[in-house]
């Protein structure tokens, strides 16, 4: 019985650690996406690269919704896609 309780406690602690990691990594990725999307908007992304701009904005918005619903893994993935779209838009603007 004591072994089973120990294993259960370890599993619970491990799950808390994993969820905490997703929380902070998602939060950081959202901050990065917000920063890059703001840079893209300031560089005229709405008119110069509308596809990348709309993608970055949309992914960021959905990422924030997922984060508020405590789905940190999805929030991180969506924020990462937003970051990628914003970076692509910024690269395309610099090419022009």
Detailed description of the structure:
With 96 residues, this protein is mostly helical. It has one domain (23-95). It contains four helices and no strands. The longest helix is centred in the first third of the chain and has 41 residues, at 2-42. It is rod-shaped, with a radius of gyration of 18 Å. The N and C termini lie far apart (69 Å). The mean pLDDT is 90.
Features:
single chain; 96 residues; mainly alpha; 4 helices
Number of helices: 4
Give the count of structural domains. Answer: 1
Structural class: mainly alpha
Number of strands: 0
Distance between the termini: 69 Å
The helix fraction, in percent, is over 70%
| Overall mean pLDDT | 90
Strand composition percent: under 5%
**Broad shape:** rod-shaped
Order of helices and strands: HHHH
Low-confidence stretches: none
* Radius of gyration (Å): 18 Å
Largest sheet: none
Record the SSE blueprint.
Layout: H1 2-42, H2 45-48, H3 50-68, H4 72-95
At a glance:
With 96 residues, the protein is mostly helical.
């Amino acid at each position: 019985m004591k072994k089973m309780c120990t294993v259960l406690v370890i599993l619970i602690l491990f799950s808390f650690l994993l969820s905490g990691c997703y929380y902070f990594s998602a939060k950081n990725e959202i901050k990065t996406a917000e920063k890059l999307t703001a840079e893209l908007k300031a560089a005229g992304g709405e008119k110069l690269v509308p596809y990348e701009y709309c993608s970055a904005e949309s992914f960021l918005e959905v990422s924030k919704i997922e984060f508020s619903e405590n789905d940190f893994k999805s929030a991180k993935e969506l924020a990462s896609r937003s970051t990628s779209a914003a970076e692509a838009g910024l690269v395309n603007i610099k090419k022009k």
